[in-house]
Design goal:
Number of strands of chain A: 18
Structural class of chain A: alpha+beta
CATH architecture of the largest domain in chain A: 3-Layer(aba) Sandwich
Pfam family, one (chains A, B): Peptidase_M20
Keywords (chains A, B): Hydrolase, Metal-binding, Protease
Organism (chains A, B): Planococcus versutus
Number of domains of chain A: 2
InterPro entries (chains A, B): Cyt/Met_Dipeptidase (IPR051458), Peptidase_M20 (IPR002933), Peptidase_M20_dimer (IPR011650)
Largest interface: A-B, 75 and 75 residues
CATH class of the largest domain in chain A: Alpha Beta
Number of helices of chain A: 15
Largest sheet of chain A: 6 strands, mixed
Protein name (chains A, B): Peptidase M20
Oligomer: homodimer
Strand order of the largest sheet of chain A: 1-2-6-3-7-17
């Protein structure tokens, strides 16, 4: 490939590309709001047209029980790997509308940033993949690899129908690598490839004591207080350093290699800046792990809420009838959410305080995800970024959970490459969402290059 | 005194007495509601008339910043002790009105029980003292002791102005014994003299972490969670048996004599019945003390409420910015509320978890109260009950706190005798409040007898 020719193509077509992206962004495809059902269909049709214009084939809209899935492919690179590109055409709601400087569905470029709902999350990033394919097909008439697109309309509402779709269309979606551009870079000018996410498991604990609230004067000291009981349970989960005391909790935690940890250390994470940002005077957690490591490669157990007793102003001397707490764990490879929930339950059972009954309710679970960071597809993405940005690529994990990524990993059994072009400052899910066009321009080149990098793998 | 003559007097005047009490009960003297301000004045004036009719002297209404205090005396028993009778003429609100079987301020006798707001708490019991005096003065022209009445109109709203009034009128109120009839018996036919109450001290603990709620995926494991921090603090307060771990907490707790504890054991408290009533399968607390002892003679520390994080349905993976808890201690003699609050604060300070800030707010305090159970005035009350009811009197304490009792004890330095005629089933503060007239009839005789018992003390 002539990289200069590709770069020139993107320069020559920049205005056209931005105009096309704006037309995509003008469609208010808010998946959460039923009044936008027709907009969802319109956005799906917009994609079909864009796919066909790019030279992709077999473009189709597949109905689901919710919003449709859009598919297209180009499969003429015989003997070469197949890349599956996942993204979503739905966007978040726009409330509070009055905080937007310009209307969310009237895209506007200011200061080389494109403002609109979906500009970065995720229409802008999906669009870049389409245009990269289009450029190569226009310039060379062919692609170095096979490509499939699967773009869904329900990511912002938790992808309720996608796992079933993937399950039922395994042959259609069969590939060698999945590429997702729906995350962010390390910072301006600092490209990152994310290769791991934490999973999720959680329970609600309900403690019941006396059948009604009691007067703490009349009964205090002789009746177990459900609030004390729940405190006793919750305290038993962690030690003062945050180390989780649930038996077997760490059994399946994969050791992370020294090399990988050295890479984390080399990221020069600015702890003081971070502490200032979130407003804490000291960080917390396992002393053998850095801030970044605690959030990327270590599992957690967090209390997300406690309720019980009197919460008004002042004093009420009540011994409450019940107390409740919600806890969630972030999991790392190879922890299994079902196994962790079973261990949490066993822990509560064996730490049940005297004088109360305890009930447990399970929450939805998500598996952790990991593509080995030295996987060729991950390293290749790093090379593509470095060629365009001129700096080494950060290989990162993320502390959060994207259940659909784990589902892809699990159902299709493929390496997933999270190749994001967003920035943390771009107001995903908030008013004035925008996309830095520097990363739009560079991203087109990174994606084009990556297809050639993947072609060299095997 | 001729006890038979007194008994006959009460029998002869029963209808008149009940009619008079009903006229008192018809006045809706709800201290909490400002629209009843004139009713408060009317109730005070009703008392003045009743005092004068009884033969009491110096009857007067003393204004306070709130509702007035009513005073009267009879001081012609030279060389004899003076008994100060405290009570209140205000009543609780009547909501929810629709649950009353008959209107709260239209007294009605059904099944030998007098139904009306204030029938038992406390107009009925105050009225008995007035009529006992009246009977003796009518029959004999004199009393065996000196008597003073102080009846306030703000007990149901926490007696905000009474301590100042008592402080400023120490000469007027100077006495040898304070008698209060505003509590209950052990049960039907089971008289009780209460000689001790627990005190109260409490704090609110506010834990602050990051400046805003954080995503538990992005930050979980590296930032202290205020909910975990408050759990750590709360758990540090007690051990699993309920024993309080605050340094010096038990230092000033008076030992209770074996004899007194034998008296408690002899009360034949029905633990199984109590457990069934409040709906617990097992009781809780210090193993060296009985259920009754834990609530009467042992101090407590109870969490009354915890708030923090997400309390809606389902899951929200938040690491909250703050958490809060309210705790109160019930105190026993000679614990001092100020000292206990200082110890609680020192405890929190020395158990402050890493990574958060902690603020403490103090609540109102109340001292514990104790008249030694073998005090002659207490034992005399027991004899008077036994003569009338024909069964031994229980000498009890109560787990709750009545701040005004401790204030009397503290300001006037007098033994307080809690000589109640109510029953726990009589719906104090609730719809269908009533008073068993058996205890009205017997109570008149107990009170009359008690004045002669006191006359024999010294």
């Amino acid at each position: 490939m002539n990289a200069q020719a590709v770069d020139q193509y993107f320069k020559d077509h920049r205005e056209t590309h931005l105009d096309e992206l704006k037309s995509f962004l003008r469609i208010p495809s808010i998946s959460a709001l039923s009044e936008h059902k027709e907009d969802m269909q319109q956005a799906a049709e917009w994609l079909i047209a864009a796919f066909e214009h790019a030279g992709l084939e077999n473009a189709k809209i597949d109905a689901t029980e919710g919003h449709p899935v859009v598919y297209a492919d180009w499969l003429h690179a015989e003997g070469k790997p197949t890349v599956l590109v996942y993204g979503h055409y739905d966007v978040q709601p726009v409330d509070p509308l009055h905080l937007w400087e310009t209307a969310p569905f009237e895209p506007q470029v200011r200061d080389n940033k494109l403002y609109a709902r979906g500009a970065s999350d995720d229409k802008g990033q999906v669009f870049m993949h389409v245009k990269a394919i289009e450029a190569l097909l226009k310039l060379e008439g062919e692609l170095p690899v096979n490509v499939k697109f699967i773009i869904e309309g329900e990511e912002e509402i938790g992808s309720p129908n996608l796992p079933k779709y993937v399950e039922e269309n395994q042959d259609l979606l069969a590939s060698d690598i999945i590429v997702i551009s729906d995350t962010g870079m390390q910072g301006p000018g600092r490209p990152a490839v994310c290769y791991g996410l934490r999973g999720l498991a959680g329970i609600q604990i309900d403690v019941n004591g006396p059948k009604g609230d009691l007067h703490s004067g009349i009964y205090g000291g002789a009746v177990q207080n459900p609030l004390h009981a729940i405190v006793e349970i919750l305290q038993s989960f962690r030690d003062q350093e945050g180390l989780i005391q649930v038996e077997g909790f760490y059994d399946d935690v994969l050791e992370v290699s020294d090399k990988e940890r050295e890479e984390f250390a080399a990221l020069h994470f600015d702890l003081e800046h971070e502490k200032k940002e979130i407003g804490i005077s000291e960080d917390f957690g396992e002393k053998d792990y850095s801030f970044v490591e605690r959030t990327w490669i270590r599992p957690t157990l967090e209390v997300n809420g406690i309720t019980g007793g009197f919460s008004g102003e002042g004093i009420k001397t009540v011994l409450p009838a019940e107390a409740s707490a919600k806890i969630t764990c972030r999991l790392v490879p190879d922890q299994d959410p079902d196994d962790i929930v079973a261990k949490l339950k066993a822990h509560v059972e064996s730490h049940k305080p005297a004088g109360v009954t305890v009930e447990i309710t399970e929450f939805d679970k998500g598996k952790p995800f990991l593509t080995p960071y030295d996987h060729p597809a991950i390293q290749a993405a790093g090379r593509s970024y470095e060629k365009v940005y001129g700096v080494p690529t950060a290989f990162t994990r993320m502390g959060g959970s994207i259940p659909i990524v784990a589902a892809f990993d699990e159902i299709l059994g493929l390496p997933v490459v999270l190749m994001g072009f967003g920035l943390a400052s771009e107001n995903f899910h908030a008013p004035n969402e925008h996309f830095h066009l520097e990363n739009f321009d560079k991203g087109l080149r990174v994606i084009s290059d990556y297809l050639f990098e993947v072609a060299e793998l095997d």
